[in-house]
Amino acid sequence: MSFIPASPTFAVEIKGSEDYTTHKQVERSEKRADYFEAGTVAIWDVDPLAQTITLHTSISDIVFRPGDRAHAEPALHSWTPDVSVLFE
Q: Pick from 83, 70, 86, 68: which is nearest to 10 by CA?
């Protein structure tokens, strides 16, 4: 097996229990910058404790909560999962 020599169009990062410190938040921000520099256009930052999904793009951030329909525009078109269902 080998890695694909390209960046993903859409990435999903799920916070683990160790990801809630200030240091880890800075690391995650730097990692998102690396993704964008490599050509990724949308990143989901999934927070299981807060039950939120934050969509990061190079121009804005949007937070989706239970009851919302999330999206991953501009990476994925017409895909809008129900946030409540994702956290069941």
A: 70
Q: What is the rounded distance in angstroms from the CA atom of residue 70 to the CA atom of residue 87?
A: 12
Write out the two tokens for 7.
Answer: 């960046």
For residue 58, give the 3-state DSSP assignment.
coil
pTM of the complete model beyond 0.85: yes
Which range of residues forms the domain containing residue 69? 10-86
Beta strands in 20-77 (DSSP E): 42-47, 52-56, 61-64
Q: Tokens standing for 54?
A: 């934050």
Query: SS3 for 38?
Result: helix
Determine how many CB atoms are found less than 10 A away from the CB of residue 37: 10
Per the structure, the count of domains in the chain is: 1
pLDDT tens-place string over residues 10-28: 999 999 999 999 999 999 9
